[in-house]
Specification:
The complex is a heterodimer of chains A (1062) and B (289).
Chain A (H helix, E strand, L loop, with lengths): L2 E7 L12 E7 L14 E2 L6 H10 L8 E17 L12 E7 L11 E12 L1 H9 L12 H18 L3 E6 L9 E6 L4 H13 L7 E2 L12 H5 L17 H19 L9 H11 L9 H16 L8 E8 L8 E9 L6 E3 H6 L4 E4 L2 E4 L1 H15 L14 E4 L1 H17 L3 E3 L13 E8 L12 E9 L2 E3 L1 H9 L4 E4 L2 E4 L2 H12 L6 H7 L6 E2 L2 E8 L1 H10 L20 H15 L4 E3 L7 H14 L7 E5 L1 H14 L5 E4 L8 H7 L5 E5 H6 L1 H5 L5 E4 L11 H11 L6 E5 L8 H11 L1 H4 L2 H15 L2 H11 L3 E2 L6 H4 L5 E8 L3 H19 L3 H20 L1 H4 L14 H15 L4 E5 L2 H15 L5 E2 L5 H13 L6 E5 H4 L10 E4 L6 H8 L11 E8 L3 H11 L2 H9 L9 H8 L6
Parallel strand pairs in A: 3-6, 10-16, 17-23, 24-29, 24-30, 25-27, 25-28, 26-27, 28-29, 31-36, 32-34, 32-35, 33-34, 35-36
Antiparallel strand pairs in A: 1-2, 2-6, 4-5, 4-6, 4-9, 7-8, 10-11, 11-12, 11-15, 13-14, 17-18, 18-19, 20-21, 22-23
Chain B lengths: L2 H10 L7 H11 L4 H12 L3 E7 L2 E6 L7 E6 L5 H13 L1 H8 L7 H6 L14 E4 L9 H16 L2 H6 L4 H15 L4 H24 L2 H4 L21 H4 L14 H25 L4
Antiparallel strand pairs in B: 1-2, 2-3, 3-4
Helix pairs in contact in B: 2-7, 3-7, 4-9
Classes of the chains: A alpha/beta (1062), B alpha+beta (289).
Chain lengths: 1062, 289
């Protein structure tokens, strides 16, 4: 897996005559390498692809830029140094055996405490600014592809900004004088950042820029004249870090220049000289603006005149970006005074919060002044120039500039009003800062609105969304409360700016009208509206902004539970529940109960291993205890977990009656189904049957529907999703709707609609609306405000707790062992039966001395069948229906999905090397990821490489297959926090040793151990024995599997015959 | 000031509605008694007979194509102020921040002569006799029509840069500005100590910032931000806020041979900005999914 990077090279050295900037694409891939000994010239970066490899890879990903050239660049990258023991050396223990070396750090690599900066020579591809703009435009605007580094996202966002600037026409043509005598002067298109928003955006891009974007240093060839450079010639061998100091010049110029290049390239492309009848100067300029290199053909005198005129032209709109700008702060009159005060300040461009007063500017010498950490040169010139421009916009300032070093002036109320209403915005758009009193600054928060106090009606427990609340309201403006009388008095004053209790506020006629309307017809407020008003900021009621919502204690508790601002009230384990809920599970039970009484569907999305199944079972048990469970519940789950459900239900809630609608003998008419459902609490079935027997299910009056592994309905158009939604829609009388899933559902926008449509159809509306309103903006553009809104809407219905949550982790054991119960597929079942039948006969008729071996052979074959029929049939390649043929594999696939989704890592142990190979090729194909397999046949070097990659590569494999024998001992694989025992070695000590590869010192997460058990088969029976610690099992612990060979035929028969009772 | 005013003015009256200091210059020229000669000069200026005009130090050098094959050389200059006079002027200028502010913003302050009043000198010449000139033409009259043509063009040059008048009086922009800084400092000298202290603390801060970079390699790779809300949907602005439409006329002396030149140039830019805006919007919509 390679990771694509992009670094800006300010100078391209390929064509010395045209030093134009380019974007340099390169990619790195982790591999085993020895640290490099530092040399006088940068070492080749050991992880990067060659230019040709990169080209092929990009081609394959279908994102190869149309035009690119092979390039070598020198980049400064964070690196780690280490001492290495020399292996080639003969003498031992001498000092020379240790060698110092360095290696570059990869993105995301766990960093050592100290890192160093080192130059690395890197191969890649260079693309021109025009190609950059085209290439970036086609890339996604959110991080979807794991092959893209995060800085690529920075680049795509920058390109997006350039499109926005062009769409808004925020550019001007200019002349760029060459700094070097021999070079051409050029005609350029430059961005115009006169608007305040755009300048803020620039500062954000500067602040958020990953350093790798600008980490290139001039490449020094050995024979090049720049190798005579001071730093190298002085001491070539001992210049360990020649570039470290040059990197900290975090200058806005760098980013502006990149933006300039990209905008210039895009505007240059289409520009054609349009008219002939032009002044020769303008004509030459126009020609150059459309030419590829921008060279302008005019004599020096003319070009300088043109340059001066054009730069004045632009500077009248906004001067070249400096580190600071002139700023005005308006301060309201104090007490009885009527005059406002205007302070002159200098404000840091990068951080509007940083200002210094004008007197500091006048105090400073002409060189520089510091605003916070920012050094500003020629501050008085900046301040004066800004004041001069402000004069054109707001002439009243002239009065304040009659002294040599003015700092402040006063404004009449009328002037202050003009300043606030119109001048402030114009000033901002001309690059001058304005600070207004908070109560007068723009935005809803200062507008006339209301505050609300509300509480549930007496005796209500807040369970009905439509119920009315007891409530009262007050007026508020500019953060100040206001009585109605006060408002009437203020409303009569004709002045728009009003001093109310010491705060200056602006009273807008429209807001007054809205209040009047509100007073004429005061509305009711119900619980539903309260939930909406408190869900996001900036809500309004009848057009009046609601500045504050204060619920009474009982309402507050309901709101907080609803918005999940407080953990749900725990509910004690219900009677009849055989088990013990952990504290967070009791809170989960409380949450399910809360939403149930609210008649809202709930999605319990706890991390795998936190026990969603038992929380649900406890909840159903509780409903039954309370007499709420009057009709059967339909529980739909993937086929591979049906067995697991039955097992868990029998273990934890034996008091619940449960039937399975599955298999050839299932009810095939409504009548039969109804009959079978008498006295039944839960009916479980599979997704495919929910689809196939849809008509049956729709005709049953269910209490509700529960779907497990709810990601099964993620594709809203799939048949089974539609079938399930139809069953859900047919439910009557405030039904129960619950979805269980372990995947981070709230992050999968496209899947949310189907889920919510099942749970609470009204929340997200119709699918088309959803796609337009949320899916498109969020997925295509990464629109954060739509995402926030969406999360606020669905948040109340999804409870997701992670193993790593602080409130959870203390409740969790460090190691969680889960039994994964699976059944056999049809093919497995018949193969299993046939094998048992023929082999038992054979063993019974064998001489005693052969029996032992034959018995073990049979057991091995049966275990293989439980894994996959292909193993027994000695197939070596995976075929089309490979997944369908094994229930175990299906279950594994489901769990892996959750593991991969949550960015966990897993080990999988098997005792069958052939199974490992089959799994490896299947999983690599299925998940399109790399899956290493360490087995007896792996060489020592291969083993070490696999282990190192798994442990250290930041983007290393997420799943590691190991054969129990080769990988069960000695290795340290703490990066994994899931361990799969896909088949069983009937010796807990051996399994535990394997588990300990992950569960050991250095492990920071809870380790989840998944033990697969095929029901009814030998796997279950032996598991049962171990569980019951029978005499046999004790033997097992001591002697591996040998004891099995000594069983009598009857004993053996009981052990292996498929138990079909369920 | 917008572009249409300039063009109508050019054909009607010369330079028309202009910055006040350009107008004042034009009035000066129009006070010349020999109207006929002035008209000829205007024609020269408009038809592009002036082949070059340069401000070198305190003089204006120009070449005007007359009746002879070789262009005539024209020189113009004003009386310069001596150092003592300038001292007084700087003194006066520094006393009103407004003057520096306007000059820096490219505007000639209306009451600028007040700053010169103490010296008894002026910035603007009071009459044409103060504008000294030489021409290589055989015409004995001064100003001849070649010189007068330069008068007209100088008005245009003043529009480009108000500091030119100061330069002709003996102070170029940079010297003037640094003299003003010095003068202001003198007015503020008492408070110097405080600044020095603040300097020391900030260099320590810079050092801390460097260390911060050193200690976190994540700064090299991390970028978690979502796309700015405003950039999600890209639409051209509805208001007339594009650069080419708000920038107005180039502060650039128009070439009388091509009176429509500037208008055309800017009109082309404005229409190009619309075409490009449309294109950028389409590009922004065509994101791959």
């Amino acid at each position: 897996m390679s990771l694509l990077h992009a670094t800006w090279l300010t100078q391209s050295e390929d064509l010395p005559s045209e030093k134009s900037p380019v974007l340099f694409l390169w990619a790195d891939t982790w591999q085993m390498v020895n640290p490099k000994k530092p040399e006088s010239s940068p070492s080749p970066h050991p992880y990067t692809l060659s230019s040709e490899e990169l080209r092929i890879w990009l081609e394959k990903k279908n994102i190869l830029p149309k035009e690119s050239i092979n390039r070598t660049a020198c980049l400064t990258l964070p690196s780690k140094s280490s001492l290495q023991t020399k292996t080639t050396h003969n003498r031992k223990n001498s000092e020379g055996d240790q060698e110092w070396g360095i290696l570059p750090l990869l993105a995301g690599e766990t960093s050592p405490n100290n890192y160093e900066l080192w130059p690395w020579k890197i191969n890649g591809l260079a693309i021109s600014p025009w190609e950059v703009s085209q290439w970036l435009t086609q890339l996604p605007l959110s991080l979807k592809d794991a092959d893209f580094s995060e800085e690529i996202l920075w680049w795509t966002h920058l390109q997006r900004w350039s499109l926005s600037l062009i769409a808004n026409g925020l550019w001007l043509p200019q002349i760029e004088l060459s700094k070097e005598e021999s070079k051409h002067h050029r005609a350029r298109w430059v961005p115009l950042l006169n608007q305040e928003d755009e300048r803020k955006r620039l500062e954000e891009f500067i602040q958020k820029m990953p350093l790798v974007v600008m980490c290139a240093i001039p490449w020094r060839n050995k024979n090049n004249k720049s190798s005579n450079n001071e730093s190298e010639s002085k001491n070539p061998s001992a210049s360990p870090n020649p570039i470290a100091s040059s990197l900290f010049r975090q200058d806005r110029k760098v980013v502006i220049n990149v933006l300039k290049e990209i905008i210039d390239a895009q505007l240059r492309e289409d520009f054609e000289k349009q008219t002939k009848d032009l002044d020769p100067l303008l004509s030459a300029w126009q020609t150059a603006l459309g030419s590829a290199n921008g060279y302008i053909d005019l004599c020096d005198e003319d070009i300088k005149r043109l340059e001066k005129a054009t730069s004045n032209w632009k500077e009248a709109l906004y001067p070249n970006l400096k580190d600071a700008k002139t700023c005005f702060e308006l301060v309201p009159p104090i007490e009885d005074d009527t005059l406002w005060t205007l302070h002159f300040l200098l404000q840091a461009e990068s951080n509007p919060a940083l200002t210094i007063s004008a007197d500091k500017v006048w105090e400073a010498d002409s060189n520089s002044v510091e605003i916070g950490e920012i050094k500003v040169t020629h501050p008085s010139e900046i301040l004066l120039e800004g004041l001069g421009r402000a004069l054109k916009i707001f002439p009243a300032i002239e009065r304040g500039l009659e002294t040599p070093t003015p700092q402040v002036m006063q404004l009449s109320p009328a002037e202050a009003f003009v300043f606030i209403k119109t001048a402030s915005q114009q000033l901002r758009d001309n690059g001058i800062g304005v600070i207004l009193p908070k109560s007068l600054s723009k935005g809803v928060s200062s507008r006339l609105g209301i505050t609300i106090k509300a509480e549930l009606k007496e005796r209500s427990n807040g369970a009905k969304p439509g119920e009315n609340l007891d409530w009262s309201w007050d007026l508020r403006i500019g953060g100040i409360d206001l009585t109605l009388q006060e408002l009437q008095i203020l409303g009569k004053k004709k002045s728009p700016l009003i001093n109310h209790k010491g705060t200056w506020i602006e009273l807008r006629p429209n807001d007054l009208k809205n209040v009047e309307k509100f007073l004429c017809n005061p509305p009711h407020l119900n619980l539903d509206e309260a939930l909406t008003l408190t869900s996001t900021q900036g809500n309004s009621l009848l057009k009046l902004p609601v500045h504050q919502f204060t619920p009474g204690p009982r309402l507050k508790s309901v709101l907080e539970q609803y918005h999940q601002q407080q953990s749900p009230e725990p509910i004690a384990d219900p009677e009849g529940f055989h088990g013990q809920l952990r504290p967070y599970q009791q809170r989960g039970l409380g949450w399910l109960t809360f939403l149930y009484y609210f008649h809202q569907g709930a999605c319990l999305a706890d991390d795998m291993g936190l026990g969603k199944t038992i929380q649900l079972l406890a909840f159903i048990q509780q409903l039954k205890n309370q007499g709420e469970l009057k009709k059967p519940l339909l529980l739909i789950a993937p086929t591979s977990v049906l067995t697991n459900w039955k097992r868990e239900a029998i273990t934890f809630t034996p008091g619940l009656s449960l039937i399975e609608h599955y298999g050839a003998n299932r009810a095939n008419t409504v009548e039969k189904l109804k009959k079978s459902l008498q006295e039944i609490d839960i009916c479980i079935t599979s997704y495919s049957l929910a689809c196939r027997d849809n008509e049956l299910f729709k005709n049953i009056n269910w209490q509700g529907v529960v779907i497990d592994e709810a990601q099964a309905i993620k594709n809203s158009n799939a048949k089974q999703s539609i079938a399930i939604r139809e069953i859900s829609k047919g439910l009557k009388h405030d039904p129960l709707r619950i979805a269980l899933t372990g995947t981070p559902i709230e992050n999968r926008i496209s899947e949310l609609w189907a889920l919510m449509n099942f749970l609470n159809p009204k929340v997200l509306g119709e699918e088309n609306f959803f796609n337009q309103r949320y899916k498109l903006p969020i997925e295509h553009y990464g629109d954060i405000s739509s995402l926030k809104d969406l999360k606020a809407r669905v948040g109340p219905f999804i409870l997701r707790r992670l193993k790593t949550d602080k409130s959870i982790i203390s409740d969790l054991p460090n190691k969680i062992e889960l039994n994964e119960w699976v059944s056999l597929s049809k093919e497995q079942e018949s193969l299993y039966k046939k094998t048992v039948e023929t082999n038992l006969k054979e063993i019974a008729s064998s001489p005693l001395n052969q029996r032992h071996g034959k018995t073990l052979g049979l057991l091995t074959r049966l275990k293989q069948i439980c894994n996959h029929p292909a193993l027994n049939l000695k197939e070596t390649e995976i075929n089309n229906n490979f997944l369908e043929r094994s229930s175990k594999l299906q279950r594994l696939n489901q769990i892996l999905e959750e593991v991969f989704e949550t960015n966990d890592r897993a080990l999988l142990f098997t005792q069958f090397t052939e199974w490992g190979h089959l799994l490896q090729s299947y999983l690599m194909k299925e998940w399109q990821v790399e899956v290493p397999f360490l087995h007896g046949g792996s060489s020592k070097i291969q083993r070490q490489e696999m282990i190192d990659r798994f442990q250290h590569d930041p983007r290393g494999p997420k799943l590691f297959l190991l054969s129990l024998k080769a990988g069960g001992l000695g290795l340290n694989l703490t990066r994994a926090n899931h361990v799969f025992h896909i088949d069983r070695w009937w010796n807990p000590a051996v399994e535990n040793q394997a588990t300990d590869r992950a569960y050991r010192i250095g492990q920071t997460k809870s380790v989840i151990v998944h033990k697969f058990i095929t029901t009814g088969s030998i796997e279950e029976k032996i598991n049962q024995m171990i569980f019951e610690k029978s005499q046999l099992a004790e033997n097992i612990v001591g002697s591996g599997e040998n004891w099995l060979g000594k069983l009598s035929v009857d004993e053996l028969s009981e052990l292996v015959v498929l138990d079909n009772k369920e | 000031m917008n572009k249409t005013e300039i063009t109508t003015a050019l054909s009607r009256k010369g330079l028309g509605e202009q910055s006040w200091w350009v107008e004042q210059w034009m009035e000066l020229i129009n006070s010349y008694r020999y109207k006929k000669r002035l008209e000829r000069a205007w024609g020269y200026a408009r038809e592009g007979n002036v082949t070059s005009i340069r401000f070198e130090g305190r003089r204006v050098h120009a070449r005007v194509q007359g009746t002879e094959e070789k262009p005539y050389k024209v020189k113009l200059w004003l009386d310069v102020l001596d150092d003592e006079d300038w001292n007084y002027v700087i003194d006066a200028l520094a006393k009103k921040a407004k003057w520096s502010a306007q000059l820096l913003a490219g505007v000639m302050p209306k009451d600028i002569e007040d700053a010169f009043a103490t010296t008894g000198k002026r910035l603007f010449p009071f009459n044409l006799q103060e504008v000294k000139s030489e021409c290589s033409c055989p015409d004995q009259a001064n100003p001849c029509k070649h010189i007068s043509a330069i008068y007209f063009l100088m008005g245009d040059q003043f529009k480009e840069d108000p500091f030119i008048l100061f330069q002709l009086r003996g102070k170029d922009r940079n010297t003037l500005l640094s003299d003003l800084v010095e003068k202001r400092l003198l007015l503020n000298q008492d408070n110097k100590e405080a600044t020095k202290n603040s300097k020391n603390t900030s260099s320590i801060r810079n050092y801390a910032y460097q260390n911060n970079i050193m200690s976190s390699p994540d700064l090299w790779w991390k970028y978690k931000s979502a796309l700015d809300d405003e950039l999600v949907v890209i639409t051209p602005s509805t208001e007339e806020t594009t650069g080419p439409s708000i920038a107005g006329a180039l502060p650039f002396a128009s070439n009388p041979k091509f009176p429509e030149s500037q208008n055309t140039f800017i009109r082309d830019l404005v229409s190009y900005s619309q075409v490009q805006a449309q294109k950028a919007m389409l590009n922004a919509m065509a994101i791959k999914t």
